[in-house]
Write a structure and sequence with these properties.
By secondary structure, the chain is α/β, with parallel strands linked by helices. The protein has six helices and seven strands, in the order E-H-E-H-E-H-E-H-E-H-E-E-H. The termini are close together. The protein binds 5-O-phosphono-beta-D-ribofuranosylamine (GRF).
């Protein structure tokens, strides 16, 4: 897809931003249907902001304490920039019903478990504690219920006996980086 025709995309982050990094790299490829125009973070110390700024992507930090007010500001920014897709990438805040309604079917999230199993936080430890043989990651559409929207793609990996939450998180994160671009291609190409 050529530049001007790409889907203008915003990525929402809270932390390290490795998924943001892989989405950005992907966005530069010819076959990518997206172009990242904006990065939003609720955390001014998010490492991912260093990356987005280094790539000259407009990057904004919002304190989500007054969520409604902040979301309205963000909605205005998104509208101004003609953003058509939001990729949540390690974004740790829950978006309101109103916000999700305004972007219905246009917000996607990555979650480090095989949804519908292990919604919410601490997914790896919970999977290990339950003696699961497999875990993985899921890309899904965002709806009003936490980690419950329509599943776009999943990748399953084995949990080894010697795994702990950290080793499992690392292997799954590696898969997340491959899965996010694939899901976007599946949705838009
Ligand atoms: C990822 O495991 C993501 O699935 C989860 O938080 C982590 C964020 O990683 N929601 P990063 O900030 O993209 O490096």
């Amino acid at each position: 897809m050529i530049g001007p025709n790409k889907i203008k995309t915003a990525v929402f982050i809270s932390g390290t931003g490795t998924n943001l990094k892989t989405l950005y790299k992907f966005s530069l490829k010819k076959r990518s249907p997206i172009k990242i125009e904006l990065v939003i973070s609720n955390n001014k110390n998010a490492k991912g902001l260093l990356f987005s700024k280094s790539k000259k992507i407009i990057s904004k930090v919002f304190n989500f304490k007054k969520r409604m007010i902040i979301e309205n500001k963000i909605l205005k920014d998104l509208e101004k920039k003609n953003i058509k897709l939001i990729c949540l990438a390690g974004f740790m805040k829950i978006l309101s019903k109103n916000f999700i309604k305004k972007f219905k079917g246009k917000i996607i999230n990555i979650h480090p478990s095989l949804l519908p199993k292990y919604k919410g936080l601490n997914t790896h430890q919970r999977a290990i504690d339950n003696n699961e043989k497999f875990s993985g990651c899921t890309i899904h559409l965002v709806n009003n219920r936490l980690d419950s929207g329509k599943i776009i793609l999943q990748k399953k990996i084995k949990i080894y006996k010697q795994d702990n939450a950290k080793s499992l998180a690392k292997r799954i994160l590696n898969e997340e980086h491959k899965l996010y671009p694939k899901a976007i291609i599946k949705l838009y190409c």
